[in-house]
Amino acid sequence: MSHHIVEVKDLAYTYPGGTRALRGVSFRIVHGESVGIVGANGAGKSTLLRHLNGTVEPAQGSVRVGDFPITRKTLHQVRRTVGMVFQDPDDQLFMPTVYEDVAFGPLNLGLPTAEIENRVMQSLDTVGAAHLRDRPPYRLSGGEKRAVAIATVLSMTPDILVLDEPTSNLDPKARRQLIELLRSFRHTKIIASHDLDMILDLCERTIVIHEGRITADGPTARIFNDQNLLAESHLEKPLRMQACPICGPR
Amino acid sequence: MSKIESALFDLSGLDALALQQSPIHRLDPRAKVLTALAFAITVVSFGKYDLTGPLPLLAYPVVLIVLGDLPPGYLLGKLIIASPFALVVGVFNPLLDRAALTQLGPLNVSGGWISFGSILLRFGLTLLAALILIATTGFNAVCLALTRLRVPRVLTVQLMLLYRYIFVLTGEGARMVRAWSLRAVSERRMPSRIFSSLAGQLLLRALDRAQRIHMAMLSRGFEGEIRPIRPLRLGAADAAFALAWTGFFVLVRFYNIPRLLGRLVTGIAQ
Amino acid sequence: MHMADALISPAVGATMWAAAGGLIVYSAHRLKAELDERKVPLMGVLGAFVFAAQMINFTIPATGSSGHIGGGIILSILLGPDAALITIASILTVQALFFADGGLLALGCNIINIGFFPCFVAYPLIFRKIVDDRLTRGRILAGSVASVVVGLQLGALAVVLETVGSGISELPFKAFVLLMQPIHLAIGCVEGLITSAVVSFVWKARPEILEMATLAGPGTGRSTKKFLASLAAVTILLAGFLSWFASSRPDGLEWSIERAAGKSELAEAPHGLAAALGRVQNMTAFLPDYDFRQSQKPAGRGVAAAAPAAAPAVNVGTSVAGLVGTALTLGLVALVSVILKTRTQDRAARQNPFARS
């Protein structure tokens, strides 16, 4: 439990329809690391994330979180350790009010009422959404929804945060606020995204996935400078690293 | 505005009223649910030729609208566009039941007209009560009250989830309809062929969404049961509200107040 | 086809509430035993789908009029009858509360008419028999149309029985049946075709979903048969009960209303049921008889006792008093509302002097 490693070994998965989403993926993430997972649409990012807290069972290979391999018996413990933030907050916020949604996890952990109240308010404070506590989710803006979705996970006090496209559908200001929020977390972070600028801001290490396989794994700066690698994986240099055609030298 | 868009608008409009603050809004939802139920039962228990007896019951919606600071025009508008089934069936009454029951000066009023009037009155009163319940309580609080009143949790959890995702799926459906109507300029209504593939598409998305929600639930320790946590406290005000109204309903049910009043006044005049 | 509060008597409303309540408890129990927690979000989202799809009108081919989708069979196919019934009950509740479709007391009727018949009769007895675990396009088409039509016919018949049994509407049974059944036959054919098209669409796009649902769902096992037999018995009992009310004896109707009025009080004061019932009945018997109907009878005892004069004169007298009283009542209600309004505004102004100027 001390170092919270995430270890994925030779993981493969095929969907019931026959799509081979993962074809042998292996990596290891240690405590406090912040890792970006990038790849084109359909590269297998979301499938990989779903394995990290056991919502999908591996067809081949294994996933290990902390001291436990993920099995039916350890599922409960793993899900306490790994907090998963889904791409569409509408999928994650299913309860009638923000408060109840953030309390959903702690309630399932069987915590006493006072502790639940405590955790809910603390999580909402952390993401700056305490004033939204009695609102129904459909009355929130995109940025507010995302913040609350993160609070629902924080209230479980996870050690590892897994985020799927956290900046999608956000306006520039909300995106910037989210990046600052994530930067302030000391958790181990695994972030899957197309937003390479955000990955550049938050992750010192990046894993590139293409057609179900890892094509690169290393320091973010190095990977984002590898023009050939990015092109082969259907990606592009982060905008910030491209020379600006308007203001910069041509 | 298409029907699906206006439905969305309707839903959020009524529920938004429930966010207001008023003495009625602050009452325990259970008190309001039970009182609304007692009201509806009282209304329909009157005989079908009794037009005057149920009239004092108007006090219930009127007082709640005033104390709850609800917009009366908005609620009445909803009543008028509401389900026409009762009217369609009721309108046969004056045609079928022509026996004169009472006289208004030189006019013979048939039983059919009176019972038609009674149907309209029942319709207005019971539906107004339902709308007021939502507008002063909010749907989720009504669900919570039902759970505490021992309605099976399987049903109340469904009500809650349904209500949550109606907004999401109706929004999705409305966007699909708009995308179709922008490209089908000459057609006013959707051909059934297009409808079935649109509905199929929406259904597939719904199935995918359900799967993702399930994963989100599992990720936070879901093991098959959703527990409500908001505490409810029945206070003296809540009990007084429910008991006073129920008492009033009973009084109105057993004493024809308009006629007693009328007798009193005409008696004095003579 | 929503049944409305305005048309039902308390006896019919209460009977159907009891039936619907029993059915929901039964289905909830079976769902719990099934222990498939995937269904929790699935039911909610599919309910929202049916709700959204019902808001989209489409043109019925060759007629130009518009129709909408019915949900019972689609939900049964995807969820099984128990979950489908609960889902439909929740849709109907939202419609009753937000769109004033039906109303609170008619909810029981509506759950039976729109939920029970498609999910518990048409789906297991017709759709499953026709489709029989071997999905083909033709079977889906035949099964959908047949089951939707039968479900709707039974539902429409139930609407007629409930309406006639309540005696609020003057429509005679025969005329109402002749009105309702053919209309719903036509609606059923269209809804059946649409249902089949939507189900086929899903089957083509994701065969595994339908195969899993039809294989996993409760088929026609022994317990289902036993259940259907008991339900059939209940249905026959209910039908008998309703048709007894529907018999043209006015006393039967009157009795039902008085009786149910007594019941409504009982629901609020559950102590000493029998005593309360007796008291309430005595009270109603001695109350001044204000029912207009009495004047139709040769010797209107109640009215005559209230004002001993010739029958037509009595009527005029009563109606004048009635009109004056009505005006007074409405005036009182208006007065109360005005007083309350000014008082709440005063209070609001005191609490926040800048709120209303």
Entry keywords:
heterotrimer, A: 250 residues, alpha/beta, six-stranded mixed sheet, four-stranded antiparallel sheet, 10 helices, 10 strands, 36% helix, C: 357 residues, mainly alpha, Arp2/3 complex 21 kDa subunit ARPC3, two-stranded antiparallel sheet, 13 helices, 76% helix, 1% strand, disordered C terminus
Write a brief structural summary.
Chain A has 250 residues and is α/β, with parallel strands linked by helices. Helix content of chain A is 36%, strand content 24%.
What does this structure look like?
The complex is a heterotrimer of chains A (250), B (270) and C (357). Chain A is α/β, with parallel strands linked by helices and 250 residues long. Chain A has 10 helices and 10 strands. Chain A has a 6-stranded mixed β-sheet with strand order 6-7-8-3-9-10, with helices on both faces. In chain A, strands 2-1-4-5 form a 4-stranded antiparallel β-sheet, covered by helices on one side. In chain A, α7 links the parallel β7 and β8. Chain A is globular and about 55 Å long. The model of chain A has no long low-confidence stretch (mean pLDDT 89). By secondary structure, chain B is mainly α. Chain B has 2 domains: 176 residues, no CATH class; 69 residues, no CATH class. In chain B, strands 1-2 form a two-stranded antiparallel ribbon. Chain B starts with a helix and ends with a helix. Chain C is mostly helical and 357 residues long. In chain C, 76% of the residues lie in helices and 1% in strands. In chain C, α1 packs across α5, α2 packs across α4 and α3 packs across α5. The longest helix of chain C has 41 residues. Classes of the chains: A alpha/beta (250), B mainly alpha (270), C mainly alpha (357). Chains B and C meet through α1, α3, α4, α6 and α7 of B and α1, α2, β1, β2 and α4 of C.
